[in-house]
């Protein structure tokens, strides 16, 4: 491990590409490597899995090295933090007061501990949506389309992609009218894929666009929860009209 850390430090000092990287510029590679690990595991090829796990580890090493250069933390701080978190989130393993819990009880305890950690970090409000994991993306679809475009399988301009999207939406509507779940799923996938293609033709990073929208949704929904909490209410106790009014308030607050 020490040899690997020293190698990473040497690369940062002597490789022009490595020197130019920042934590932000490197993040897309971490996401890509995580997908490649998933693909390798599905393939069942042991050598491939080993290689892709190494590539993913590289992203951790690289990020830690950059933050170490800033004097923020180093790799060993990451390791220690992870170790303490695992112990803290597994009281049913390391604390005799929490033995013999069921799987459901363990999951509930895990969520409770995570919420406590966020509050201790100064996050006063914990949204119900925080249980939804970050990082879901449409990266693979856009990558496939970009590759196909290099092989001349592409529209000449965005108008062609937009017409295809309109076509897929109409087919989705027809599937819905037919009440055919299998057909609906297929056409929904086709519509999403076509919309991603429109974004690609507009030279947009569809993954980042969607993640930005998800972040915006989280923020606005948290506003709704906070406003209702002041009245002693929860979202499930309100009708759609009440929630929509608060949603619009959240939008207006963003403009201030």
Written account of the structure:
There is one protein chain. This protein is mainly α. Among the domains are: 1-88, Orthogonal Bundle (Helix Hairpins), CATH 1.10.287.1080; 90-124; 155-204. The protein has twelve helices and no strands. It has helices at residues 2-14, 16-20, 23-43, 46-69, 75-88, 91-94, 103-120, 139-150, 158-177, 181-201, 206-229, 240-255. Helix 1 packs across helix 4. The N and C termini lie far apart (50 Å). 9% of the residues are buried. The model has no long low-confidence stretch (mean pLDDT 91).
Describe the protein's topology.
Elements: H1 2-14, H2 16-20, H3 23-43, H4 46-69, H5 75-88, H6 91-94, H7 103-120, H8 139-150, H9 158-177, H10 181-201, H11 206-229, H12 240-255
Protein name: Nucleoside triphosphate pyrophosphohydrolase
Domain NTP pyrophosphohydrolase MazG-like: 21-94, 167-220
Pfam family, one: MazG
Primary descriptors:
single chain, 256 residues, mainly alpha, Helix Hairpins, 0% strand
What name does the CATH topology of the domain at 1-88 carry?
Helix Hairpins
The end-to-end span amounts to 50 Å
| Largest beta-sheet characterization | none
Can you write the helix and strand succession as a string? HHHHHHHHHHHH
Q: Under the CATH scheme, which architecture of the domain at 1-88 would be assigned?
A: Orthogonal Bundle
CATH superfamily of the domain at 1-88: MazG-like
Please tally the β strands and state the result.
0
* Average pLDDT figure: 91
**Rg measurement, Å:** 23 Å
Count up the helices.
Answer: 12
Structural class: mainly alpha
* Approximate helicity band: over 70%
Which of globular, elongated, flat, extended, rod-shaped describes the shape? globular
List low-confidence stretches.
Answer: none
Keywords: Hydrolase
Organism: Acinetobacter qingfengensis
GO molecular function, one term: nucleoside triphosphate diphosphatase activity
Domain NTP pyrophosphohydrolase MazG-like: 21-94, 167-220
């Amino acid at each position: 491990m020490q040899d690997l850390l020293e190698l990473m430090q040497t690369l940062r000092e002597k490789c022009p590409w490595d020197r130019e990287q920042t934590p932000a510029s490197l993040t897309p590679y971490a996401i890509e490597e995580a997908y490649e690990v998933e693909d390798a595991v599905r393939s069942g090829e042991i050598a491939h899995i080993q290689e892709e796990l190494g590539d993913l580890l590289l992203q951790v090493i690289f990020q830690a090295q950059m933050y170490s250069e800033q004097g923020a933390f180093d790799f060993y701080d990451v390791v220690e933090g992870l170790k303490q978190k695992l112990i803290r989130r597994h009281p049913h393993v390391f604390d005799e007061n929490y033995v013999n819990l069921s799987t459901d009880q363990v999951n509930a305890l895990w969520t409770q501990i995570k919420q406590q950690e966020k509050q201790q970090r100064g996050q006063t409000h914990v949204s119900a949506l925080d249980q939804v994991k970050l990082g879901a993306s449409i990266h693979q679809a856009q990558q496939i389309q970009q590759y196909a475009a290099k092989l001349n399988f592409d529209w000449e301009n965005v108008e062609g992609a937009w017409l295809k999207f309109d076509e897929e939406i109409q087919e989705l509507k027809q599937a819905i009218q037919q009440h055919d779940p299998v057909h609906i799923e297929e056409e929904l996938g086709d519509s999403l894929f076509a919309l991603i293609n429109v974004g690609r033709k507009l030279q947009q990073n569809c993954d980042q666009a969607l993640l930005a929208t998800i972040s915006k949704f989280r923020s606005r929904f948290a506003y709704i929860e906070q406003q209702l909490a002041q009245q002693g209410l929860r979202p499930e106790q309100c009708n759609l009209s009440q929630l929509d009014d608060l949603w619009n308030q959240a939008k207006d607050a963003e403009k201030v």
